[in-house]
Amino acid sequence: MYYITAESEFDSAHFLSGYKGKCSNLHGHRWRVQAKITGDLCADEQHRGMVADFGDIKRDLREIADSLDHTFIYEEGTLKDTTLAALYDEGFSLYPVPFRPTAENLAKYICGRMADCGRSHGYEVYSVTVWETPGNAAEYVR
User: Fold this and answer.
1) Phi first, then psi: what are they for 113, rounded to 5°?
2) Does pTM top 0.85 for this prediction?
3) Where along the chain do its domains lie?
């Protein structure tokens, strides 16, 4: 069994609704994301000797990271309608999610999106790791 990885980064803001501490306030991160792909070596001529095409994996992970880049990721139902209206009116890029936007939940979310891509491009996602800071990461294993 082999494992290969690809990484990407994005910048975004978030806050943790209901959390008692500094992270309850709006703040931003330079998130680093690593997708780990698993499998045996391919036998077809195009991919012989590869687990998967790094180009496909990098492109898929980059598209996901780009969709989150320079957005305000927030948990649905945690902001007042007037706040959302004002943010949209100001032209801010908002990214609502149905979960508290922790590194753990983002790892699971991105892993699911990568798994969808993998089904289309012929690779299997083993895990996704999301670094919130250079020293703090969460990994979700499928």
Assistant:
1) -65, -40
2) yes
3) 2-141
Tokens of residue 118, six digits: 């993998």
What is the C-alpha separation between 65 and 16, in angstroms, rounded?
20
**Residues 20-47 pLDDT 10s:** 999 999 999 999 999 999 999 998 898 8
Quick one: tokens of 93? Answer: 């890029």
DSSP letter string over 76-121? TTSS-HHHHHHHHHTT--EEEESS---HHHHHHHHHHHHHHHHHHH
Catalytic option among 7, 23, 121, 139: 23
Which one from 7, 42, 132, 139 is the annotated catalytic residue? 132
Contact 33, 9 (CB under 8 A): yes
Each residue of 40-71: pLDDT tens digit?
Answer: 999 889 889 999 999 999 999 999 999 999 99
Both tokens of 4, joined, read 């290969």
For domain 2-141, which architecture applies? Answer: 2-Layer Sandwich (3.30)
> Would you call 23 a catalytic residue per the annotation?
yes
The token duo for 40 is 């045996």
Does an H or E element contain 20, and which? none
